[in-house]
Design goal:
133 residues
Length: 133
């Protein structure tokens, strides 16, 4: 099962907290809580919850239905990003979110490369039409 980016982000927060508690990390170098406030994590998880629920209904779906699910998750993530002053997702986070979307679709039996090719897109471009983060 594809691992949610928010799981990685929460793990990083916990690891940083352990290092701070152990005195092995200078507090001035701690940044995870600032990068990933709880409101961002909760909002992102809510979007991913909806995405995963929609994935369950994709059996036998055509390309338009698949792209509809992708569009909805990307637009919802755009809204989360906007709510966080357009700074919620930097390069690493964007890559993790796109990988999660791709892996989740693949786990549902969708051939991402073939889907993209049928629409004149590269394999990693299925979110580009809507993505602002």
């Amino acid at each position: 099962m594809a691992e949610r980016p928010t799981t990685n982000w929460r793990d990083g927060i916990a690891e940083e907290a352990e290092e701070l508690a152990a005195g092995t990390l200078d507090p001035e170098c701690a940044c995870m809580v600032g990068l990933f406030p709880e409101a961002l994590l909760t909002s992102t998880d809510a979007v991913l919850d909806s995405f995963e629920m929609e994935l369950a209904g994709l059996d036998g779906a055509d390309d338009a239905q698949i792209f509809g699910v992708v569009e909805r998750v990307v637009l919802a993530l755009n809204a989360v990003n906007a709510a966080h002053n357009e700074g919620a997702y930097d390069t690493d986070e964007r890559e993790q979110l796109c990988d999660f979307i791709d892996q989740s679709l693949t786990e549902r039996g969708i051939d991402i490369a073939a889907l993209a090719a049928r629409h004149g897109l590269g394999m990693y471009q299925i979110t580009d039409k809507w993505r602002k983060w």
